Amino acid sequence: MKKVFNIVGARPNFMKIAPIHKRMQATAGLVPVLVHTGQHYDGAMSKVFFEELGLPEPDIYLGVGSGSHGEQTGRLLVELEKVMVADRPDLVVVVGDVNSTMAAAIDAAKLGIPVAHVEAGLRSFDRGMPEEINRIVTDALSDLLFVSEDSGRENLLHEGARADRIHFVGNVMIDSLLGHKARAETSTALARIGLDRKRYALVTLHRPSNVDSSEGLRSILGALARIQREVPIVFPIHPRTRKMIEQYGLGELVASMPDLYLIDPQGYLDFLRLMMDASVVLTDSGGIQEETTVLGVPCVTLRDNTERPVTVTLGTNTLVGMDPERIVSAAFEALNGHCKTGKVPPLWDGHASERIVELITNQV
Ligand code: UD1
Questions:
Q1: What's the pLDDT band for 351 if we cut at 50, 70, 90?
Q2: What Cα–Cα distance (Å) separates residue 98 from each residue in 130, 137, 170, 192, 289?
Q3: Residue 103 has what pLDDT?
Q4: Does the residue 343 lie in any domain?
Q5: What are the distances in angstroms from CA 167 to CA 45, 120, 287?
Q6: What is the pLDDT of residues 255-284, one digit of tens each?
Q7: Atom 16 in ligand 1: residue holding the nearest Cα
Protein backbone atom coordinates (compact mmCIF):
# COMPACT_ATOMS: atom_id res chain seq x y z
CA MET A 1 0.00 0.00 0.00
CA LYS A 2 1.31 3.45 -0.90
CA LYS A 3 0.39 6.37 1.31
CA VAL A 4 -0.18 9.64 -0.60
CA PHE A 5 -0.53 13.03 1.08
CA ASN A 6 -2.90 15.23 -0.94
CA ILE A 7 -2.20 18.80 0.17
CA VAL A 8 -4.74 21.64 0.08
CA GLY A 9 -4.66 25.07 1.67
CA ALA A 10 -6.51 27.77 -0.20
CA ARG A 11 -9.80 28.01 -2.09
CA PRO A 12 -8.54 27.24 -5.61
CA ASN A 13 -6.90 24.03 -4.35
CA PHE A 14 -10.12 22.33 -3.33
CA MET A 15 -11.68 21.85 -6.78
CA LYS A 16 -8.32 20.63 -8.11
CA ILE A 17 -7.66 17.99 -5.46
CA ALA A 18 -11.27 16.74 -5.17
CA PRO A 19 -11.35 14.57 -8.33
CA ILE A 20 -7.83 13.26 -7.65
CA HIS A 21 -8.56 12.37 -4.02
CA LYS A 22 -11.80 10.60 -4.95
CA ARG A 23 -10.12 8.65 -7.72
CA MET A 24 -7.34 7.59 -5.35
CA GLN A 25 -9.87 6.43 -2.75
CA ALA A 26 -11.26 4.07 -5.37
CA THR A 27 -7.83 2.81 -6.49
CA ALA A 28 -6.40 -0.39 -5.01
CA GLY A 29 -2.93 0.03 -3.57
CA LEU A 30 -3.24 3.77 -2.80
CA VAL A 31 -4.10 5.27 0.60
CA PRO A 32 -4.83 8.96 0.08
CA VAL A 33 -4.54 11.23 3.13
CA LEU A 34 -6.17 14.64 2.82
CA VAL A 35 -4.07 17.34 4.49
CA HIS A 36 -5.60 20.85 4.85
CA THR A 37 -3.09 23.47 5.94
CA GLY A 38 -5.78 25.96 6.96
CA GLN A 39 -4.32 28.78 4.82
CA HIS A 40 -7.96 29.59 4.08
CA TYR A 41 -10.19 29.03 7.10
CA ASP A 42 -13.42 31.05 6.70
CA GLY A 43 -16.40 28.75 6.11
CA ALA A 44 -17.15 30.56 2.85
CA MET A 45 -13.55 30.13 1.63
CA SER A 46 -13.14 26.52 2.68
CA LYS A 47 -15.82 24.37 4.35
CA VAL A 48 -18.55 24.93 1.76
CA PHE A 49 -16.19 23.64 -0.95
CA PHE A 50 -15.55 20.42 0.94
CA GLU A 51 -19.28 19.86 1.28
CA GLU A 52 -20.21 20.69 -2.31
CA LEU A 53 -17.27 18.88 -3.91
CA GLY A 54 -17.95 15.78 -1.83
CA LEU A 55 -14.54 15.90 -0.17
CA PRO A 56 -14.29 14.13 3.18
CA GLU A 57 -13.27 16.06 6.30
CA PRO A 58 -9.49 16.52 6.11
CA ASP A 59 -7.57 13.67 7.76
CA ILE A 60 -5.11 16.27 9.01
CA TYR A 61 -5.89 19.96 9.64
CA LEU A 62 -3.01 22.29 10.46
CA GLY A 63 -4.74 25.61 11.18
CA VAL A 64 -1.91 27.73 9.78
CA GLY A 65 -4.09 30.77 8.94
CA SER A 66 -3.12 34.16 7.50
CA GLY A 67 0.04 36.25 7.80
CA SER A 68 2.76 37.88 5.74
CA HIS A 69 4.35 35.59 3.17
CA GLY A 70 7.29 34.86 5.43
CA GLU A 71 5.15 34.20 8.50
CA GLN A 72 2.62 32.08 6.67
CA THR A 73 5.20 30.08 4.72
CA GLY A 74 7.27 29.62 7.89
CA ARG A 75 4.31 28.21 9.80
CA LEU A 76 3.42 26.01 6.83
CA LEU A 77 6.96 24.61 6.67
CA VAL A 78 7.01 23.83 10.40
CA GLU A 79 3.58 22.21 10.58
CA LEU A 80 3.78 20.26 7.32
CA GLU A 81 7.20 18.89 8.24
CA LYS A 82 5.85 17.54 11.54
CA VAL A 83 3.12 15.52 9.87
CA MET A 84 5.37 14.31 7.05
CA VAL A 85 7.93 13.08 9.58
CA ALA A 86 5.25 11.44 11.74
CA ASP A 87 3.34 9.77 8.89
CA ARG A 88 6.06 9.29 6.29
CA PRO A 89 4.00 9.33 3.06
CA ASP A 90 5.34 7.63 -0.09
CA LEU A 91 4.31 10.61 -2.24
CA VAL A 92 3.17 14.19 -1.69
CA VAL A 93 0.74 15.65 -4.25
CA VAL A 94 0.50 19.44 -4.49
CA VAL A 95 -1.79 21.47 -6.76
CA GLY A 96 -1.66 25.00 -8.13
CA ASP A 97 0.55 27.79 -6.91
CA VAL A 98 -0.41 28.97 -3.43
CA ASN A 99 1.92 29.26 -0.47
CA SER A 100 0.75 25.88 0.86
CA THR A 101 1.76 24.27 -2.47
CA MET A 102 5.32 25.57 -2.29
CA ALA A 103 5.81 24.86 1.42
CA ALA A 104 4.69 21.25 1.05
CA ALA A 105 7.04 20.75 -1.90
CA ILE A 106 10.00 22.14 0.04
CA ASP A 107 9.33 19.99 3.11
CA ALA A 108 8.81 16.81 1.10
CA ALA A 109 11.88 17.35 -1.08
CA LYS A 110 14.08 17.90 1.99
CA LEU A 111 12.73 14.75 3.61
CA GLY A 112 13.43 12.75 0.45
CA ILE A 113 9.73 12.18 -0.27
CA PRO A 114 8.78 12.32 -3.98
CA VAL A 115 6.59 15.25 -5.00
CA ALA A 116 3.97 15.41 -7.75
CA HIS A 117 2.89 18.86 -8.92
CA VAL A 118 -0.47 19.18 -10.62
CA GLU A 119 -0.67 22.27 -12.88
CA ALA A 120 3.08 22.36 -13.38
CA GLY A 121 4.97 24.63 -15.75
CA LEU A 122 2.58 27.59 -15.87
CA ARG A 123 4.54 30.86 -16.00
CA SER A 124 3.44 34.48 -16.08
CA PHE A 125 7.11 35.57 -16.24
CA ASP A 126 6.17 38.16 -13.62
CA ARG A 127 8.10 37.63 -10.43
CA GLY A 128 6.15 40.41 -8.78
CA MET A 129 3.40 37.81 -8.42
CA PRO A 130 3.84 35.67 -5.31
CA GLU A 131 2.34 32.72 -7.17
CA GLU A 132 5.09 32.86 -9.81
CA ILE A 133 7.73 32.30 -7.13
CA ASN A 134 5.65 29.44 -5.75
CA ARG A 135 5.39 27.86 -9.23
CA ILE A 136 9.11 28.08 -9.96
CA VAL A 137 10.16 26.64 -6.59
CA THR A 138 7.53 23.88 -6.64
CA ASP A 139 8.41 22.76 -10.16
CA ALA A 140 12.14 22.77 -9.44
CA LEU A 141 11.54 20.33 -6.58
CA SER A 142 8.93 18.06 -8.17
CA ASP A 143 9.55 14.53 -9.44
CA LEU A 144 6.29 14.26 -11.35
CA LEU A 145 5.20 17.31 -13.35
CA PHE A 146 1.59 17.16 -14.54
CA VAL A 147 0.90 19.88 -17.10
CA SER A 148 -2.45 21.25 -18.20
CA GLU A 149 -1.46 23.00 -21.43
CA ASP A 150 1.39 22.95 -23.95
CA SER A 151 3.06 26.06 -22.58
CA GLY A 152 3.67 24.16 -19.33
CA ARG A 153 5.81 21.55 -21.03
CA GLU A 154 7.73 24.17 -23.02
CA ASN A 155 8.45 26.28 -19.95
CA LEU A 156 9.64 23.29 -17.94
CA LEU A 157 11.92 22.03 -20.70
CA HIS A 158 13.31 25.52 -21.08
CA GLU A 159 14.11 25.56 -17.36
CA GLY A 160 15.93 22.25 -17.69
CA ALA A 161 13.35 19.83 -16.31
CA ARG A 162 13.80 16.20 -17.36
CA ALA A 163 11.43 15.37 -20.22
CA ASP A 164 10.52 11.99 -18.69
CA ARG A 165 9.13 13.75 -15.62
CA ILE A 166 6.68 15.87 -17.59
CA HIS A 167 3.22 14.48 -18.36
CA PHE A 168 0.55 16.35 -20.32
CA VAL A 169 -2.61 15.22 -18.53
CA GLY A 170 -5.12 18.03 -19.04
CA ASN A 171 -6.86 20.18 -16.47
CA VAL A 172 -8.20 18.79 -13.18
CA MET A 173 -10.14 21.97 -12.44
CA ILE A 174 -12.22 21.15 -15.52
CA ASP A 175 -12.88 17.63 -14.18
CA SER A 176 -14.65 19.30 -11.25
CA LEU A 177 -16.41 21.83 -13.44
CA LEU A 178 -17.85 19.23 -15.82
CA GLY A 179 -18.74 16.96 -12.93
CA HIS A 180 -20.76 19.68 -11.18
CA LYS A 181 -22.26 21.67 -14.03
CA ALA A 182 -25.62 19.91 -13.94
CA ARG A 183 -25.98 20.47 -10.20
CA ALA A 184 -24.93 24.10 -10.58
CA GLU A 185 -27.83 24.62 -12.97
CA THR A 186 -30.20 24.03 -10.06
CA SER A 187 -28.54 26.74 -7.92
CA THR A 188 -30.85 29.59 -6.98
CA ALA A 189 -28.01 32.16 -6.86
CA LEU A 190 -29.41 34.27 -9.71
CA ALA A 191 -32.92 34.43 -8.32
CA ARG A 192 -31.65 35.29 -4.84
CA ILE A 193 -29.80 38.32 -6.18
CA GLY A 194 -32.58 39.17 -8.64
CA LEU A 195 -30.54 38.75 -11.83
CA ASP A 196 -31.64 37.58 -15.28
CA ARG A 197 -29.66 35.02 -17.29
CA LYS A 198 -27.09 36.59 -19.63
CA ARG A 199 -27.93 40.08 -18.41
CA TYR A 200 -25.21 40.80 -15.91
CA ALA A 201 -21.45 41.01 -15.49
CA LEU A 202 -19.62 38.96 -12.86
CA VAL A 203 -16.53 40.41 -11.17
CA THR A 204 -13.86 38.88 -8.94
CA LEU A 205 -10.79 40.71 -7.71
CA HIS A 206 -8.20 39.73 -5.14
CA ARG A 207 -4.65 39.93 -6.55
CA PRO A 208 -2.36 42.06 -4.41
CA SER A 209 -1.27 43.92 -7.58
CA ASN A 210 -4.86 45.07 -8.13
CA VAL A 211 -6.27 45.49 -4.65
CA ASP A 212 -3.31 46.35 -2.43
CA SER A 213 -2.89 49.86 -3.85
CA SER A 214 -5.34 52.65 -3.20
CA GLU A 215 -5.08 54.25 -6.68
CA GLY A 216 -5.26 50.89 -8.46
CA LEU A 217 -8.34 49.76 -6.60
CA ARG A 218 -10.00 53.17 -6.97
CA SER A 219 -9.37 53.18 -10.70
CA ILE A 220 -10.80 49.67 -11.17
CA LEU A 221 -13.87 50.63 -9.11
CA GLY A 222 -14.23 53.68 -11.37
CA ALA A 223 -14.38 51.35 -14.39
CA LEU A 224 -17.00 49.21 -12.62
CA ALA A 225 -19.04 52.36 -11.92
CA ARG A 226 -19.28 52.96 -15.68
CA ILE A 227 -20.09 49.35 -16.52
CA GLN A 228 -22.90 49.07 -13.95
CA ARG A 229 -24.71 51.92 -15.67
CA GLU A 230 -25.20 49.57 -18.62
CA VAL A 231 -25.58 46.21 -16.95
CA PRO A 232 -25.87 45.01 -13.34
CA ILE A 233 -22.61 43.76 -11.82
CA VAL A 234 -22.41 41.02 -9.25
CA PHE A 235 -19.20 41.02 -7.25
CA PRO A 236 -18.59 38.22 -4.73
CA ILE A 237 -15.93 39.84 -2.65
CA HIS A 238 -12.79 38.14 -1.36
CA PRO A 239 -11.96 38.91 2.31
CA ARG A 240 -8.68 40.55 1.24
CA THR A 241 -10.50 42.93 -1.13
CA ARG A 242 -13.18 43.77 1.42
CA LYS A 243 -10.46 44.64 3.90
CA MET A 244 -8.67 46.88 1.39
CA ILE A 245 -11.87 48.72 0.39
CA GLU A 246 -12.39 49.57 4.05
CA GLN A 247 -8.74 50.45 4.65
CA TYR A 248 -8.61 52.85 1.67
CA GLY A 249 -11.94 54.47 2.56
CA LEU A 250 -13.54 53.34 -0.71
CA GLY A 251 -16.75 52.12 0.92
CA GLU A 252 -18.67 55.24 -0.15
CA LEU A 253 -17.61 54.88 -3.77
CA VAL A 254 -18.87 51.30 -3.71
CA ALA A 255 -22.12 52.29 -1.99
CA SER A 256 -22.73 54.97 -4.63
CA MET A 257 -23.19 52.35 -7.38
CA PRO A 258 -26.84 51.26 -7.42
CA ASP A 259 -26.30 48.32 -9.76
CA LEU A 260 -23.19 46.87 -8.17
CA TYR A 261 -24.20 43.90 -6.02
CA LEU A 262 -21.47 43.22 -3.53
CA ILE A 263 -22.04 39.77 -2.09
CA ASP A 264 -20.12 37.38 0.17
CA PRO A 265 -17.74 34.85 -1.38
CA GLN A 266 -19.90 32.18 -3.02
CA GLY A 267 -19.81 28.42 -2.70
CA TYR A 268 -18.66 26.28 -5.62
CA LEU A 269 -22.08 25.57 -7.15
CA ASP A 270 -23.49 29.08 -6.78
CA PHE A 271 -20.35 30.58 -8.26
CA LEU A 272 -20.40 28.14 -11.15
CA ARG A 273 -24.01 29.15 -11.85
CA LEU A 274 -23.06 32.83 -11.74
CA MET A 275 -20.23 32.19 -14.22
CA MET A 276 -22.28 30.06 -16.62
CA ASP A 277 -25.02 32.64 -16.96
CA ALA A 278 -22.93 35.83 -17.02
CA SER A 279 -22.72 37.99 -20.16
CA VAL A 280 -19.12 38.69 -19.31
CA VAL A 281 -16.74 37.89 -16.45
CA LEU A 282 -14.15 40.42 -15.29
CA THR A 283 -11.48 38.86 -13.10
CA ASP A 284 -7.88 38.72 -11.96
CA SER A 285 -8.14 35.05 -10.95
CA GLY A 286 -6.14 32.31 -12.63
CA GLY A 287 -8.67 29.50 -12.51
CA ILE A 288 -11.61 31.61 -13.69
CA GLN A 289 -9.77 32.31 -16.97
CA GLU A 290 -9.83 28.54 -17.55
CA GLU A 291 -13.37 27.92 -16.37
CA THR A 292 -14.86 30.67 -18.58
CA THR A 293 -12.96 29.27 -21.56
CA VAL A 294 -14.63 25.89 -21.09
CA LEU A 295 -18.03 27.47 -20.47
CA GLY A 296 -17.67 29.66 -23.58
CA VAL A 297 -18.26 32.83 -21.55
CA PRO A 298 -16.19 35.93 -22.45
CA CYS A 299 -13.53 36.68 -19.86
CA VAL A 300 -11.84 40.06 -19.43
CA THR A 301 -8.72 39.58 -17.33
CA LEU A 302 -7.53 42.55 -15.30
CA ARG A 303 -3.87 41.65 -15.60
CA ASP A 304 -1.05 42.39 -18.03
CA ASN A 305 0.01 38.78 -18.31
CA THR A 306 -1.31 35.29 -17.82
CA GLU A 307 0.36 32.02 -16.89
CA ARG A 308 -2.47 30.32 -18.80
CA PRO A 309 -1.85 31.52 -22.40
CA VAL A 310 -4.04 28.84 -23.97
CA THR A 311 -7.09 30.66 -22.58
CA VAL A 312 -6.11 33.62 -24.79
CA THR A 313 -4.94 31.74 -27.89
CA LEU A 314 -7.74 29.16 -27.95
CA GLY A 315 -10.23 30.31 -25.34
CA THR A 316 -12.46 33.27 -24.56
CA ASN A 317 -9.94 35.27 -22.53
CA THR A 318 -8.73 38.83 -23.25
CA LEU A 319 -6.02 40.53 -21.18
CA VAL A 320 -6.64 44.21 -20.51
CA GLY A 321 -4.44 45.08 -17.53
CA MET A 322 -5.62 47.75 -15.11
CA ASP A 323 -6.33 50.61 -17.51
CA PRO A 324 -9.96 51.63 -16.85
CA GLU A 325 -10.55 52.59 -20.50
CA ARG A 326 -9.50 49.17 -21.71
CA ILE A 327 -11.52 47.44 -19.00
CA VAL A 328 -14.68 49.34 -19.91
CA SER A 329 -14.28 48.95 -23.67
CA ALA A 330 -13.53 45.20 -23.44
CA ALA A 331 -16.57 44.72 -21.19
CA PHE A 332 -18.82 46.67 -23.59
CA GLU A 333 -17.52 44.74 -26.60
CA ALA A 334 -18.38 41.48 -24.87
CA LEU A 335 -21.80 42.81 -23.87
CA ASN A 336 -22.44 43.74 -27.50
CA GLY A 337 -21.55 40.25 -28.61
CA HIS A 338 -18.19 41.17 -30.16
CA CYS A 339 -16.14 38.59 -28.38
CA LYS A 340 -14.17 35.44 -28.98
CA THR A 341 -16.21 32.29 -29.21
CA GLY A 342 -13.28 30.14 -28.13
CA LYS A 343 -12.42 26.45 -28.27
CA VAL A 344 -11.89 24.00 -25.43
CA PRO A 345 -8.13 23.32 -25.10
CA PRO A 346 -6.82 19.78 -25.66
CA LEU A 347 -7.46 17.29 -22.83
CA TRP A 348 -9.66 19.65 -20.85
CA ASP A 349 -12.16 16.85 -21.08
CA GLY A 350 -13.02 15.89 -17.51
CA HIS A 351 -10.57 12.98 -17.35
CA ALA A 352 -7.34 14.60 -16.16
CA SER A 353 -7.55 13.09 -12.67
CA GLU A 354 -7.85 9.59 -14.11
CA ARG A 355 -4.67 10.11 -16.13
CA ILE A 356 -2.88 11.50 -13.10
CA VAL A 357 -3.84 8.65 -10.77
CA GLU A 358 -2.89 6.08 -13.38
CA LEU A 359 0.55 7.64 -13.82
CA ILE A 360 0.98 7.82 -10.04
CA THR A 361 -0.05 4.19 -9.62
CA ASN A 362 2.51 3.11 -12.21
CA GLN A 363 5.36 5.19 -10.83
CA VAL A 364 5.18 5.25 -7.04
C1 UD1 B 1 -4.40 33.01 -1.93
C2 UD1 B 1 -3.32 32.60 -2.92
C3 UD1 B 1 -3.75 33.00 -4.31
C4 UD1 B 1 -5.13 32.49 -4.65
C5 UD1 B 1 -6.10 32.96 -3.59
C6 UD1 B 1 -7.51 32.51 -3.82
C7 UD1 B 1 -0.99 32.67 -2.09
C8 UD1 B 1 0.26 33.42 -2.17
N9 UD1 B 1 -2.07 33.28 -2.66
O10 UD1 B 1 -4.47 34.43 -1.93
O11 UD1 B 1 -2.83 32.48 -5.26
O12 UD1 B 1 -5.53 32.96 -5.92
O13 UD1 B 1 -5.64 32.45 -2.32
O14 UD1 B 1 -8.33 33.06 -2.84
O15 UD1 B 1 -1.02 31.58 -1.57
N16 UD1 B 1 -8.54 35.85 4.65
C17 UD1 B 1 -9.66 35.68 5.41
N18 UD1 B 1 -10.19 34.43 5.50
C19 UD1 B 1 -9.66 33.37 4.89
C20 UD1 B 1 -8.50 33.54 4.11
C21 UD1 B 1 -7.96 34.80 3.99
O22 UD1 B 1 -10.18 36.62 6.00
O23 UD1 B 1 -10.20 32.25 5.00
C24 UD1 B 1 -7.96 37.21 4.50
C25 UD1 B 1 -6.92 37.51 5.50
O26 UD1 B 1 -7.04 38.85 5.85
C27 UD1 B 1 -5.63 37.31 4.74
C28 UD1 B 1 -6.02 37.71 3.33
O29 UD1 B 1 -7.38 37.33 3.21
O30 UD1 B 1 -4.57 38.06 5.24
C31 UD1 B 1 -5.21 37.03 2.28
O32 UD1 B 1 -5.21 35.62 2.44
P33 UD1 B 1 -3.96 34.76 1.91
O34 UD1 B 1 -4.20 33.30 2.14
O35 UD1 B 1 -2.71 35.33 2.40
O36 UD1 B 1 -3.93 35.03 0.36
P37 UD1 B 1 -5.11 35.23 -0.72
O38 UD1 B 1 -5.15 36.65 -1.14
O39 UD1 B 1 -6.38 34.58 -0.31
A1: very high
A2: 8, 11, 20, 32, 17
A3: 99
A4: no
A5: 30, 9, 20
A6: 999 999 999 999 999 999 999 999 999 999
A7: 239
pLDDT score, position 340: 87
pLDDT value at residue 364: 79
Collapsing DSSP to helix, strand or coil, 36 comes out as strand
Same domain, 213 and 281: yes
Please count the structural domains in the chain.
Answer: 2
Percent of the chain with pLDDT over 70: 100
CA atoms of 145 and 116, how far apart (whole Å): 6
Mutate to test the pocket of ligand 1, among 138, 206, 209 (most ligand atoms within 8 A of CB): 206
φ, ψ dihedrals at 119, nearest 5°: 90, 40
Range of the domain at 111: 2-170+348-363
**Secondary structure E strands in 56-183:** 60-61, 91-95, 115-118, 144-147, 166-168
Residue 267 · residue 48 · CB < 8 Å:
yes
Shared domain for 159 and 192, answered yes or no, is: no
Q: Which pLDDT belongs to residue 341?
A: 86
**159 and 191 part of one domain:** no
Examine the pLDDT at 21 and tell me if it is beyond 90.
yes
Rounded to the nearest angstrom, the distance between the alpha carbon of 237 and the centre of ligand 1 is 12
User: Does ligand 1 come within 6 angstroms of the Cβ of 95?
Assistant: no
Q: Assign residue 90 the CATH number of its domain.
A: 3.40.50.2000
pTM above the 0.85 mark?
yes
What distance in Å separates the CA atoms of residue 100 and residue 9, rounded to the nearest whole number?
6
Q: What is the pLDDT of residues 144-203, one digit of tens each?
A: 999 999 999 999 999 999 999 999 999 999 999 999 999 999 999 999 999 999 999 999
Within this chain, do residues 237 and 308 fall inside the same structural domain, yes or no? yes
In the reported structure, the alpha carbon of residue 197 is separated from the centroid of ligand 1 by a whole-number distance in angstroms of 30
60 Cβ contact partners less than 8 Å away, ≥ 6 residues apart: 33, 34, 35, 36, 83, 87
